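Researcher: Next entry: Tripartite motif containing 35-30 (Salarias fasciatus).
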Amino acid sequence: MPSADPWVGTWRPHKPRGPIAALYGSPGPKYGLPGLTGGSQHDPTKHKAPAFSMGTRHCEFKGQHSPGPAHSIPSNVTRTGRDGTPAFSLCGRLRDPLIFKGPGPGHYAPEQAEKSVFPAAPAYSLSGRSKERSTSLTPGPAAYSLPPVLGPKTVTTTSAPASSLGHRSKSGSFYEDLKKTPGPATYKVVDPSSYKQKPPQFSMAGRHFAPEENIKKPGPGAHYPEQVTVTKAKAPSFSFGLRHSQYTTPLIMKDDS
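Model: Predicted structure:
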């Protein structure tokens, strides 16, 4: 007869002796231990090294305003004043005083004294146009024109007879229309359908093409599966399942044979 006990061996379910990390949803009990660094909340069971801190500066040191090393008294100064020993120092060289600078030989130009010493012919130069001439409105030489000496409009000379070509007059010419009758080009050709039986008329319609493989069809990129919310309330979503604990009781099938 098979045993009615579903467990194999001597192991039986019992309460765990200590905490098991798989039984907790948090990272684990080890994160709840006090720290071993710093002075606050240190683990009392562990050795703690000495700690020192920097204190603040006391206010009593701020009121002192004694002179520093830069205000030391020189050795030649006594309680009665500076001693009378002569002292000398090196200073910069003074600038030379400005003296009278007369013109040298190069400042004179004897070659330009001919017009002042000797008689010379008058000379003229071209200077710039003054601004006063711009306001002058007197006519210049180009404003006058001489009378012509050629053609029929001469003033001082006798002109030869001149002839010109005029336009052709319609009155009295050979093509003058005295009766004012219409010509053949005045009449238009009448459509024979207006006074005879009208023949049937046909027009050219567009050519129809049967559907073939060259018709453009939508490809994979023309579809948008993410827009399924048009026909459904929500798009399908998927998630990863939970990892089962190794302490979960396995399913044991009972064999009746």
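Model: Note for the record: The first helix runs from residue 114 to 117.
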